D-amino-acid dehydrogenase (Rhodopseudomonas julia), 415 residues
Amino acid sequence: MQSEKKTAIVVGAGVVGVATAIWLQRRGLNVLLIDREGPAAGASFGNAGLLASSAVVPVTEPSLPFKMPGMILSADKPVFLRWPHLPKAMPFFLRTLQMCTRHKTEDIAAALAGVISDSLEQHQALAEGTGAEDFVVPCEYLYAYKSRSDFEASSFGFGLRRKHGFAWQELEGGELHRREPALAPELTFGITFPDHGYIRDPGRYVEALAAHFTALGGRLVTADVSDIARENGRVTGVRAGGDMFACEACVLAAGIWSGPLARSLGMRVPMESERGYHLEIEAPEEKLKGPVMIAAGQFVATPMTGRIRLAGVVEFGGLEAPPDEKIFDFIRRVGKAALPDLPWRESGQWMGHRPAPADSIPLIGEFPAARGVYAAFGHHHLGLTGSAKTGRIVADLIAGHTPNIDLTPYRPDRP
């Protein structure tokens, strides 16, 4: 069957799914996009908006086993755990700790670099001609620290960034505040990465991409996917909302909700929800010159249209628990300390679920036990950053092209 006659179904209309749908459409396929709520309903709406090309350092760095107890138990650290969820999450945590060796961390960093290191260029290519171009903003990416010694404490991670070609400029006191006047005087040291980018409104960006997809003939269905049909080990269709939709290829791009569908195909994925939070402050975009990582709180402040979004934090608490108000209080407290001159008129808050595999590497590629079904999920907190390239890779695989990347580290059936 010629690729231009093939029908592909993408499950999930977040940024990864929409990017995949557009690249499939550009490869000449008939494409159906299915989501239970519609475009950008989850983490694709609430993320920090950052195209974090240099974020190749996984959470599984060698120091994690020593840091984790203090991070969880301290009210001043950006990691939170709901203790009733601990028994269910324990197998995931134990598997994650197995990844915390220098060798494995370096391998994971290399895998992440393969998907995210050119994220600005990938999003510019994705958005070209869609009407979403203006949402993609080239920028520098600034890290702000209380002191040089705080920066030097992260030398292992910055060594990994250097190894993968990322350079930075150091900014002392006055130079830092000339670069970003909104920062508190207590922040005295910074570094800045060139050639990064951000999305000035992630939700509207994904909606604009989805509108372009449907304007060119793509079909969007709002329904729950309940089954992926197979015959002789190959996908034949997707059941959603009581209807069966025939296809020759299917992409799972539903974030954390891809897990149950993967299990139905015989694939168990060690994955937890890394619950993320944001607060938004009413403010002119010019109040910040670009995205800033506030290292002490491990959150990013990003200028967006008419507001500034403070996003980040990690909480492990499963899929059912409501947002925890003390986490919003944490963001508010560290945000006010770092950016005291903002007006601090809050305009919104959000909590959502980021799909976190135990080894921090996204799942990209065909399921061995279900030919024609492809994984495109598990990007941790880098879903927006890695979405455009992931979508292109999967579209190439389905269209019969060989991607210019070794996909072994991303295999859905990796040990």
Q: What stands out?
A: Residues 383-399 form the longest helix (17 residues). The radius of gyration is 21 Å.
